[in-house]
Amino acid sequence: GKCGDEQTTATIMPSVDSTGLAVGLKKGFLVEKCKLTARPATRKGKCGKHVKFVREIIREISGMSPLERRAVELLKNGRDKRVLKLCKKRLGTHKRAKSKREMCQGLLRATQRKAGAK
Predict the structure, then answer these.
(1) What's the sign of the alpha-carbon dihedral 11, 16, 17, 20?
(2) Which of helix, strand or coil describes residue 36?
(3) HEC-encoded secondary structure of 85-106
(4) Which of 97, 48, 47 minimizes the C-alpha distance to 71?
């Protein structure tokens, strides 16, 4: 009968969310989910290879901004919280300030690594 068919389809397709029964937690008809194609909007905000390369060259040529120079100096003295407060005042938001502080810490680590290698 009909119940037996539903039982067998549930055992054939274990990855499906529903059981094929009319009652219960995962009730409903057994259907296979369609695979959605990736939309261009999912790439939004991702950094491409060429853009990354260009930004690296610009940073190499232009160097650090006055804010970044001051932040690195403060980080050398272990004043992390002061750097965050400074960046927040200049950049406007806590999130931007945190990312700027992380970036400056990365710059400081890179310069220390270069100095250690020499």
Answers:
(1) negative
(2) coil
(3) HHHHHHHCCHHHHHHHHHHHHH
(4) 97
Q: Is 9 exposed, middle or buried (0-12, 13-18, 19+ CB in 10 A)?
A: middle
pLDDT, tens digit (0-9, with 9 covering 90-100), for 21-40: 889 998 999 988 888 898 99
State pLDDT tens for residues 77-108: 999 999 999 999 999 999 999 999 999 999 99
Cα angle for residues 74, 80, 86 (degrees, 5° grid): 70
Separation of alpha carbons 104 and 118, rounded Å: 22
**How far is the C-alpha of 65 from the C-alpha of 37, rounded, in Å?**
42
Query: What token pair was written down for 89?
Result: 């005042």
The sign of the torsion formed by the CA atoms of 43, 44, 45, 51 equals positive
- Can you state the angle between helices 80-91 and 94-117, rounded to 10 degrees? 130
CB-based contact 24:5 (threshold 8 Å): no
Number of H helices, E strands in the chain: 5, 0
